[in-house]
Amino acid sequence: MSDAIRDHARLVRVAILFDRIFRFPLTGSRVRNYDGLGGQLLFAWLHQRGVLHWTDVQLAVDWDAVPAAVGALGDAIDELYWRSIDRPKTAHWLAAYELVRATLAPNPASNWARGLPDETLAGAPKGYTDAVLDDEFPLSMFYEALGKKLGDVIASTSGITASSATAD
Prior knowledge:
Elements: H1 3-26, H2 34-48, E1 52-55, E2 58-61, H3 66-83, H4 89-101, H5 111-114, H6 118-121, H7 125-130, H8 141-156, H9 162-165
Antiparallel strand pairs: 1-2
Helix pairs in contact: 1-2, 3-4
């Protein structure tokens, strides 16, 4: 592999990681924003494993450790889905919730975090989904602070598309 391709690949890795952990959690509605939740999960997973550090408004990433940490998250998700074949759908949903909850703090008002009542657990799957709060896993203090700093900038980009950016 040429050095130019290797350098480009590193930049792509940075762009994808930052897109996932910053753009999705900060843009769009907080109402059942599962792309945003994925970004929050990735950020927290890397932070809790010492791969990503945010101190004194400075971000540091141990780029050598990123592949293994992201791979470990992928392994946890693969294990979740591999085990799904051996359990009912509702038990699988509870296991998925626990995987996310092990990394992110749920909303204090969450029925899922408290434990769904027996009538919901024994009922149709719609009862499970209806019990999910619109913002089941609220943004952490990191994201709240970053959102305040970037809110005006994000709002100013509304409506910009590739075609409108090149129209001049």
